[in-house]
Amino acid sequence: MKFARFEYGGNVSFGMVKAGEMIVLDGSPFDTYEETRTHYALSDVKLLPPAIPTKIVCIGLNFRGHIEEVGAKVPERPHVFLKPPSSLIGHEDAIIFPRGAERVDYEGELAVVVKEKMKDVPEDEALHHILGCSCFNDVTERAIVFNNIADLALAKGFDTFGACGPYLVSDLDPNNLELKTYLNGELMQHDNTRNCVFTVQHILSYLSQCMTLFPGDIVSMGTPKGIAPMKPGDVVEVEVEGVGRLRNTVISHDAA
Fold it and tell me: How are strands ordered across the β-sheet holding 140-141?
């Protein structure tokens, strides 16, 4: 099923996408819901980030091609960092190029959204605790990382540096999905999540041994090779098989 969180007429609702229309839900896919008789054309609604997370957890150095690209070693355990919820934006929202930034990169990724509370969850049960998959752009001020890797949270934590959407899709195998990133229409990244070092269930179980994951929390699974800088005026799109294509335009801080 393809879910969305959207705004129409100043009201925010959850919906289900069917036959090119947004069917309004009574309730939430995180709990219980029913389809209503109200529906809108997709072109008439504003798509929002598919969840309201207490935290955004990201995994670095998970695609083997990207590990080779940056000259790193294959990690023995997941490389974990957090992005603040204040970084979150949705489909067609603008990515703001910060004042004073030197190099701002896209990082197309698969994200999963937690459906129910997760704490000390065994690996073989972890996938039952997610609602579905979405697209994610882990935007990064790369110059900060090059200067001091300890500033990773700062480099990735700027407002608008966590784009997610456009939809949240259940019943997909997150460990076998094609992932592509386009910059101004040119294919820049292309890989499959089966080429990750760590499976989604391993990462979720690993995280749950440390931190409680709550409904709506977003966990993003790392980026393939092909990262590159963006500039104001660029359009970046992240596509996940079965989900759709997340589209954002980069604008300058002054334009914002």
Answer: 140-141, 104-105, 229-230
Paired residues of 74 in beta bridges: none
Superfamily grouping for domain 2-47: FAH (2.30.30.370)
Determine which of 34-43, 65-74, 229-238 has the lowest per-residue pLDDT on average: 65-74
Which residue reads 């910060």 in tokens? Answer: 98
* Distance separating alpha carbons of residues 46 and 180, to the nearest angstrom: 23
Taking the model in full, what pTM does it have?
0.97
Are 35 and 42 within 8 A, CB to CB? Answer: no
Which pairing describes strands 186-192 and 108-114: parallel, antiparallel, or unpaired? unpaired
Predicted confidence at residue 71, as pLDDT, reads 85
**Cβ pair 218, 53 in contact under 8 A:** yes
CATH architecture group of domain 49-252: Alpha-Beta Complex (3.90)
